[in-house]
Each structure stands twice: as C-alpha cells, then as structure tokens.
Amino acid sequence: MILFQGWRAIWPSVLYPHLNNKTPLYFPRLPHPSLISSLHRRPLPGLPVLFKQWLKNEEVEEGRTAVLRCELTRPHARLEWRKGDVVLQPGDKYEIRQEGTRAELLIYEAGAQDAGEYTCDSGDQQTTASLQVKGRTRLGWG
CA–CA distance from 106 to each of 90, 113, 133 (Å)? Predict the structure, then answer.
C-alpha cells in the first residue's frame, strides 16, 4: 500500500520565518485525498473475513419474503451464498445485498421448496442457518 509518494522540500522560512533558507525541510508527499479515501475502502490483503454476527434460523410464512442477515469484520468482502450445495445467484427469486459489513439474502415468495439450510461463506469462515416455511392458514367458509 502506498503511504506517501516521495518527498517534498519546504524551505524553513515558510514554516519558521526566523530560520535561514539554506537547509530545506523534507516532508512526505501524500497521495491525492481522493486516493486516500478509496484506499480505506479496499480490503487489506491477508486479513481474514470473519463473522461478527452469525446467521440465525428463521421462519417465514409461505408467499412472504424471507431475510437472512449476517455481519462481517471487514466491509465489501466477497461472499458466496448457498442453499445446501447450490450457489445462489441474484435474480427474481433471490436478492443479495451488502452494505459495509452487513450482508443480507432475501428470498422472495417463499415456498415449501425454499425451506432448508442456507450458508454465507466469506472464504475464511462460514455461517449456516435453517429456513422454515409455514403454510398459510386459510380462513373462510367452504
């Protein structure tokens, strides 16, 4: 990671008017502020991505949206969501959200086929939870 870009000479009279100008002072030349702000968003290599909050078992009514949530130790980490051994892809059925260290899997219009074990895998650690889908209670005559 680049912490500074070379050295920059500043004549002492700029900072200390009472000194002579014969010996310059050297300070590190820092990258442009926009580069510094983007550096802190990148994952640091070598640090593991662990879970601060694990997935919890959830129960959802049939036809509703189920949400599985977890929280990581590092923002913007690459994650893989699975149901059993099947890797999930975003689409009409699944939405994968990730904001900072929080990650969510949304399962739209949950049905009996959506019940099962779901895993979020960071590559360094994984967490698994069970989703149960309850049938709708129908009220009415006949």
Answer: 9, 15, 14
**pTM of the prediction?**
0.66
Higher pLDDT, 10 or 85: 85
Average pLDDT over residues 89-102: 96
Could you tell me if 92 and 114 are in contact, meaning their C-beta atoms sit under 8 angstroms apart? no
Nearest CA among 103, 135, 133, 108 for reference residue 119: 103
Which runs of consecutive H residues, i.e. helices, occur in 1-142? 12-15, 33-39
Structural domains for the chain: 7-39 (no CATH), 51-134 (2.60.40.10)
Q: Is the pLDDT of residue 2 over 90?
A: no
List all residues 6 or more positions away from 51 whose beta carbon is below 8 Å from its beta carbon.
70, 71, 72, 73, 120, 122, 125, 127
